[in-house]
Design a protein that fits this description.
The protein is mostly helical and 719 residues long. The protein folds into 4 domains: 214 residues, P-loop containing nucleotide triphosphate hydrolases (Rossmann fold, 3-Layer(aba) Sandwich), CATH 3.40.50.300; 162 residues, no CATH class; 133 residues; 110 residues, no CATH class. 54% of the residues lie in helices and 5% in strands. The protein contains 36 helices and 7 strands. The longest helix is centred in the middle third of the chain and has 18 residues.
């Protein structure tokens, strides 16, 4: 996945395009290394920041010191700057020179007594394993034993003052022992003088300790730093340690300067080198993920430079970030655009307060401008955005950039452009978190109905030119989800072409009679309109009337339902408030006449299977020309039942201030009466149906009896 980096070089971003030209190959390992944890490097070949040379120079500087009375040197840098890695590189050069290097990690111990006890035990144990140093190991162990059971803080007062007199106090207390501290110390000093090369004792992670523990470590170093041929190499954050050492007006820096003979501050990582490592880490973290998501090369450079890069300060941050994106992108499985996921993961890792605020800012981030203007929109939307930016603190500009780049709908609250609801399909299609369902999926890992429908539509779109495959896939989905899936196909409108029109229209119109009626809100589209919108957009893609006419003539024989055929003819025709005039007027009239003839010729058994029979008959009867044969409703119970079912509908009403939608069933009674030529005939047909009622008659007989008794619905509250 080196495209993460190569895209940048094409965009000519200032600090990034230097990486291939300014960083010597000898200093930066060009191999992409999987970063799976926040671990320091241990080998020279792992150096990615070009620190081999300064580490070698530092090691030579240490070896050039006169260790006759002991030396303390420091590697200084903030958390995450790579101190441990630098020390490890330096150790490699020290060991090559034959120097013995001992390591002690004070972070593993707690309390002054434990620290002192294990310091000498650990050093003694390591020395005993080194050729020619076993005797010194024994002496170090004996020296450490003289401190056991004494307690580390025997007097009251500032800790710095105690540190100054601790040797004298300990000497007085130990006078009663056969071999006091002084005797043990002298033996150790004499033995160390005979060592031909100094011993380096490394103390790392000092800045991770609590303030009292930091003080204890430096007391320990001060107490033992004057042993000959002992070089202490301390690694810590200068400001953290100085803060811990300061007390009662005595600056911690002054005390630190009395201890350190040499201190080297780690050089800052050049921005182009750090960027190179970020790109390598991203590529490595994503390389084995099968579906990382849509990658927008146009959006990526700006998102990286304005959101991600400012939050990553050092290699520790790089490793934390890489570990985070690997797990998240894998879990998202391509359902969120990759650039969006990478940006949000940077916020999650480095700005947790902002990330937590995302959960309560979804509406403000994703709501688009309504059709009635933005001046009257709810004020809480802007408040959500302002609170989000405020949560960024000193990184507020990164948060503003995040909103501007990832959430166009919410960016208007920061002075950006206004986006209408017509953008939502595009954002959903591209899996942008600008769409509410995609953002919620990222935050909650739960696929919402709309996102699930669009995922299905995406799979359907991949098969749309193959009629059999397209039909088979749609039929494999739960029937109750099909309407949403078909509706989601509108998102591909700008890609509809001639190759899609015939197979897709046939499949969709043949599925239309099978789609169940669903409980709808006041403003939801009904099923026929949802399918009709997609079919219209498909057919419209042909542009030329002759091409549309040819396609319609190819499609109609393959559509099974009369009502679906009528739907297509209506879409391309000239019917007022319904037709889109996609064919010539003469062609539309011919298609309509042929359809009416087909209705008259259809057998009663076939008619009984029609789901929209009432409106099929009504359209055929109302639009028939005088020279056409009269349409006669077949005298069969099955046809009567089909007509009653298709005549049933619901009126819906919603009271002011209430979200509840009230529904009341009704029959298109006047149309039924006209189709049968009178209410008496209709009554007779209904009585005939009652003699052999179907199993799922529902409330049809009850409704019919009310109408036959003279009931006429006037408004929703009538009984």
């Amino acid at each position: 996945m080196n495209w993460i980096r190569s895209i940048f070089s094409r965009k000519q971003v200032d600090t990034v395009n230097q990486e291939e030209t300014e960083t010597p190959a000898s200093q930066v390992n060009q191999k992409v290394v999987r970063i799976s944890a926040d671990n320091p490097i241990t080998k020279l070949e792992e150096d990615a920041l070009g620190r081999i040379k300064p580490a070698s120079s530092f090691a030579k500087q240490v070896l050039a010191l006169d260790p006759g009375e002991g030396v303390v040197v420091g590697v200084l840098g903030p958390w995450g700057a790579g101190k441990t890695s630098f020390v490890n590189l330096s150790q490699a050069f020290l060991k090559e020179s034959g120097v013995t290097v001992l390591e002690f990690n004070p972070w593993m111990f707690s309390g002054a007594d434990q620290l002192v006890q294990f310091f000498f035990i650990e050093l003694a144990a390591q020395l005993k394993l080194r050729p020619g140093l076993a005797e010194i190991g024994e002496l170090v162990e004996d020296y450490g034993d003289t401190f056991s059971g004494l307690g580390w803080l025997p007097v009251i007062g500032p800790w710095i003052e105690r540190g100054r007199v601790v040797t004298d106090i300990l000497a007085k207390i130990l006078q009663r022992k056969k071999e006091g501290v002084r005797a043990s110390q002298n033996k150790l000093r004499e033995a160390l003088k005979k060592v031909d090369k100094p011993i380096v004792v490394v103390l790392d992670d000092i800045d991770r300790l609590s303030t009292p523990e930091i003080r204890d470590v430096f007391k320990l170093v001060r107490l033992t730093a004057n042993f000959p041929n002992i070089i202490y190499l301390l690694a810590f954050d200068r400001y953290r340690v100085e803060q811990a050492l300061g007390e009662q007006g005595i600056p911690g820096r002054d005390y630190l300067e009395k201890i350190l003979q040499i201190g080297i501050d780690l050089p800052a990582v050049p921005s182009h080198v750090l960027n190179s490592q970020i790109f390598k880490a991203i590529d490595s973290a994503l390389e084995d993920i099968e579906n990382p998501g849509h990658f927008d090369s146009e959006v990526w450079p700006d998102v990286f430079m304005e959101v991600i890069q400012p939050l990553i300060r050092n290699m520790r941050d790089v490793r934390r970030y890489a570990a985070a994106i690997h797990g998240t992108v894998r879990d998202l499985d391509g359902q969120v655009a990759l650039v969006d996921a990478l940006a949000l993961e940077a916020i999650r890792v480095f700005l947790p307060d902002v990330f937590h605020s995302l959960h309560t800012s979804v509406e403000g981030l994703t709501a688009t401008t309504n059709g009635y203007g933005y001046r009257d929109e709810p004020p809480h939307l802007k408040e959500q955005i302002e609170n989000l930016v405020s949560a960024g603190g000193e990184r507020a500009e990164c948060v503003r950039s995040l909103i501007s780049r990832l959430f166009p709908g919410g960016a208007r609250h920061l002075g950006g452009s206004h986006y209408g609801g017509d953008w939502k399909n595009r954002w959903l299609r591209e899996r942008r978190v600008a769409h509410e369902d995609v953002l919620r999926y990222y935050l909650e890992r739960v696929v919402g109905e709309q996102l699930q429908a669009f995922s299905d539509a995406e799979n359907a779109w991949a098969r749309i030119t193959d009629k059999t495959a397209f039909e088979s896939y749609l039929q494999s989905l739960p029937i109750e989800r099909l309407q949403d899936v078909i509706s989601s196909l509108e998102a591909y409108e700008d890609e509809f072409g001639a190759e899609h029109v015939v197979p897709a229209t046939i499949v969709l119109l043949n599925l239309l009679p099978l789609l169940p009626d669903r409980q709808r809100g006041m403003f939801d589209l009904d099923t026929r309109m949802v399918v009709g919108r997609v079919v219209y957009r498909l057919v419209r893609a042909l542009k030329e009337p002759d091409s549309v006419e040819m396609a319609v003539k190819e499609i109609l024989p393959q559509i099974q339902s009369l009502s679906s055929k009528e739907k297509l003819i209506c879409i391309v025709g000239y019917r007022e408030n319904a037709g889109h005039k996609l064919v010539s007027e003469a062609a539309a009239k011919t298609l309509e006449a042929e359809w009416r003839a087909e209705v008259r010729a259809t057998t009663p058994q076939q008619l009984a299977d029609e789901t929209g029979l009432l409106w099929t008959f009504w359209r055929a009867k109302q639009e028939a020309k005088s020279e056409e044969p009269e349409l006669v409703v077949p005298d069969t119970p099955a046809v009567t039942y089909a007509l009653l079912k298709s005549a049933r509908s619901e009126t819906r009403s919603q009271s002011m201030g209430s979200r509840a939608v009230r529904r009341k069933p009704q029959l298109a009674w006047d149309i039924l009466v006209e189709l049968y030529g009178g209410e008496d005939i209709l009554r007779a047909r209904i009585e005939q149906l009652k003699a052999t009622p179907p199993d799922e008659i529902g409330d049809l007989f009850e409704l019919a009896d009310k109408y036959l008794a003279g009931w006429k619905p006037k408004d929703f509250d009538d009984d």
